[in-house]
Specification:
Elements: E1 3-9, H1 26-34, E2 36-38, E3 41-42, H2 48-57, H3 61-64, H4 83-89, E4 93-98, H5 111-116, E5 121-122, H6 135-152, E6 159-164, H7 195-224, E7 231-237, H8 252-255, E8 256-257, E9 259-262, E10 270-272, E11 276-277, H9 281-289, E12 317-323, E13 327-334, E14 338-343, H10 360-367, E15 378-382, H11 400-416
Parallel strand pairs: 1-6, 1-7, 2-10, 3-11, 4-5, 4-6
Antiparallel strand pairs: 2-9, 3-8, 7-9, 12-13, 13-14, 14-15
Helix pairs in contact: 6-7
Length: 457
């Protein structure tokens, strides 16, 4: 059996150098050159807890119970479905250092809750000494903890290490790195190039650089300990950047994720361009490290891609939104060329503004009509010709058959997975913390901004 190291960043999408962006993440690029890069990898839900929970249980958010954020009262139906719990049952040492988002508030280290999802050893240090803009320093501490554990651990037994970073989550570091000249930075779509947006992007780039340095620490330690020959290393993130039309959005800018997997014997330097879903990670990891897959996984292994980069593991991927800060039920199906999105809340057509994290790019769009825009009930996008998904083709008569095909596939998928949206509004439980749909700010302190059916503090 191989060891397994799972490295994750927060809110990164694909904005790292292995995907062609001008971001100094050389260590992630080196990992890609030594492993396999997946150019069309997608999460199951572009909001933190649902994305991670789906990937680490092999079940969609509406199946595993993680409809929204763990710190807002949402939780797994069965914590024992977690990959860490399963690998522990297979004789693995299971270790967590840093961010997890599948149980409770990730900045609070409550070991009992983390043991529930299968982590035996919790290395995560206390974050309370840091302001949020300095949590990259906490990331570094947690990387050092992994290195220290590797120095003293019994390496004769297989291990799973989950190392999660706060980077590149907002708020970004206050100071822009010396090697970044923000005058020549291009803001991410749809960011207008102005001083505030360029500064915001430069702060993101700084955060990404900090994350990459921690990746180097771990990779260097694994090499020093002679573990690269018997360890599978995976890097990914949960969803797109914390920007309008990225995070909490079913466009590719929201559900597209970086995914790099390095296996000791197969796939070195490969680039796979076919569709991959986070839902397939659990069974694929089992195959890669050499343990039997448990029953009941929704995903399917894409291990064949490591020997044949052109292998097609699936014809389409599915993703969803239920709750982020406010209730916003959305579903999508995407094949290689087309994406169909269905917005299910027909009582509220405006943009759910609190589902967009606070930022200078959001402020700019609010000044220029963001609050006045409306969402369609259905949308179809041609991802070949319209990669930013701005031209809705749902009523194009020449694409009627495409619409019907994807609409039917989505419906059958929802039936197959017993999606509660087919029966109406998703159940609202009193311990959920949910903003009202018209709320402007995610972290509002005004009790009037919260749904009275749940808690607000």
């Amino acid at each position: 059996m191989y060891n397994f190291v799972y490295i994750n960043t927060h809110d990164t999408g694909k904005m790292i150098s292995p995907y062609g962006y001008n971001v100094e993440t050389d260590n992630l690029k080196k990992l890609a050159q030594e492993g396999t890069l997946f150019t069309h990898a997608y999460c199951c839900g572009p909001t933190c807890s649902p994305s991670r929970a789906a990937m680490l249980t092999g079940l969609y958010p509406h199946q595993n119970g993680m409809f929204g954020l763990a710190q807002r009262g949402f939780s797994l139906n069965d914590p024992k479905k977690h990959l860490a719990y399963y690998l522990k049952s297979q004789g693995y040492q299971t270790v967590l250092s840093g961010i997890q988002h599948e149980v409770g508030w990730y900045l609070d280290i409550e070991e009992n809750k983390l043991h529930e999802i299968g982590y035996q050893t919790i290395l995560t240090t206390c974050s309370k000494q840091y302001i949020k803009e300095d949590l990259h320093l906490w990331d570094h501490e947690n990387a050092l903890k992994v290195c220290q554990w590797l120095d003293s651990a019994d390496l004769s037994k297989p291990f799973m290490i989950a190392y999660g970073m706060h980077s590149t989550h907002r708020p970004y570091p206050l100071e822009v790195a010396d090697n970044i000249d923000e005058r020549y930075v291009k803001p991410a779509f749809p960011g207008e190039s102005n001083p505030a947006n360029r500064h915001d992007q430069a702060q993101y780039l700084t955060s990404a650089q900090n994350a990459d340095k921690n990746v180097k620490l771990l990779l260097d330690k694994l090499k020093e300990k002679g573990l690269l020959e018997n360890t599978v290393i995976m890097y990914t993130t949960d969803h797109g950047l914390a920007l309008p039309y990225h995070k909490c959005n079913l466009k590719d800018s929201g559900i597209g994720v970086g995914l790099i997997i390095k296996h000791p014997t197969v796939g070195a330097g490969e680039v796979c361009d076919n569709l991959v879903s986070h839902i397939d990670i659990f069974p694929t990891v089992c195959d890669l490290i050499g343990v039997e897959k448990p029953e009941g996984l929704e995903g399917k292994s894409f291990i064949k891609m490591f020997e044949d980069a052109s292998y097609e593991n699936r014809e389409e991927i599915y993703a969803q939104v239920n709750f982020h800060t406010s209730y916003e039920p959305i579903r999508c199906v995407r094949n290689k060329r087309y994406k169909y999105i269905r917005y299910y809340d027909e009582t509220y057509k405006k943009i759910n503004l609190s589902n967009i994290d606070e930022s200078k790019p959001k402020d700019f769009l609010l000044k220029h009509g963001l609050a006045d825009l409306e969402k369609p009930t259905e949308a179809l996008y041609d991802c070949y010709y319209d990669p930013n998904e701005v031209n809705n083709l749902i009523n194009d008569p020449s694409l009627k058959e495409v619409v019907e095909d994807l609409r039917n596939k989505l419906f059958k998928q929802m039936e197959k997975t017993d999606d509660p949206l087919l029966k109406g509004e998703i159940e609202f439980k009193p311990h959920y913390k949910v903003n009202k749909k018209h709320c402007l700010q995610a972290s509002s302190k005004n009790p009037d901004d919260y749904d009275p059916r749940g808690r607000w503090i």
